[in-house]
Amino acid sequence: MKIHIASKILASNEKKALENRKLLKEYSIFTINLMGSPGAGKTSLLEKTIKSLVGQIKIGVVTGDIAGIDDALRIERLGIPVVQINTSGACHLDANMVFNSLLDLPLNAINLLFIENVGNLVCPVEFDLGEDIKAVILSLTEGDDKPLKYPQIFQKSSILLINKIDLMPYLDVSVNRIKEGVLSLNPAIEVFEISCKTGEGFEEWIKWLQTKIS
Ligand SMILES: Nc1nc2c(ncn2[C@@H]2O[C@H](COP(=O)(O)OP(=O)(O)OP(=O)(O)O)[C@@H](O)[C@H]2O)c(=O)[nH]1
Ligand SMILES: [Mg+2]
Q1: Is the CB of 197 under 6 A from ligand 1?
Q2: From the alpha carbon of 46, which atom of ligand 1 is closest?
Q3: Options 3.90.950.10, 3.50.50.60, 2.60.40.10, 3.40.50.300; which CATH number does 2-6+13-213 get?
Q4: What is the pLDDT of residue 6?
Q5: Which one of 71, 144, 149, 180 is least enclosed by Cβ atoms within 10 Å?
Q6: Domain ranges of the chain
Q7: What is the pLDDT of residue 209?
Q8: Does ligand 1 lie within 6 Å of residue 106's CB atom?
Q9: d(C-alpha 20, C-alpha 130), whole Å
Q10: What is the pLDDT of residues 55-88, one digit of tens each?
Q11: Residue 163, Cβ neighbours under 10 Å: how many?
Q12: Regions of the chain short of the pLDDT cut 50
């Protein structure tokens, strides 16, 4: 596994994002920029998705964290090509960091690339990485008021995954309030209610991914 330590950004993010998009298109790779708060379940989603699609879709992963390699180790254990980016303090990934990671991935053996952004509901959305779509994962434990308090990430994402549905009986949160808030910001967003623990809702999510790749 390769580990990248981010250094000073020289080229503008937009220019590099275009390069990434061109490169990913050349290899026919569908790329999802996965964002969400720390602990929302980004890596858990990737683990369960990879297990569901084994033998069907060739997946690659870039994991972004301020420090550490835990997420990359979790993905590597599943036999999936992965590059860990350590941002050395930055609260988001940028296109330069991702470009350098792409050079270390076997692009001709990948059809679907997940970029797990740094856990943060604010900064990552500002930076185009060259992805096809942005997806946001929000867990029930974060509360149902989050969409209207952190609107940009929900406005700019094509997909919302509401995670930890299994914890519903223990929490005073309303899934409907989350959905109403998000849909008022972005009526076109597709919403999946899932549990990475029990697998609830994964059938729909996996079907959606399959339609994107086939
Ligand atoms: N009960 C329950 N726990 C979950 C679910 N999904 C994830 N978790 C737990 O939530 C914690 C955080 O999950 P991660 O997948 O590491 O979250 P993350 O978003 O990747 O976190 P960062 O990379 O640190 O931002 C772990 O202890 C998971 O086991 C779920 O659907 N239900
Ligand atoms: Mg993670």
Answers
A1: yes
A2: 15
A3: 3.40.50.300
A4: 60
A5: 149
A6: 2-6+13-213
A7: 97
A8: no
A9: 5
A10: 999 999 999 999 999 999 999 999 999 999 999 9
A11: 26
A12: 10
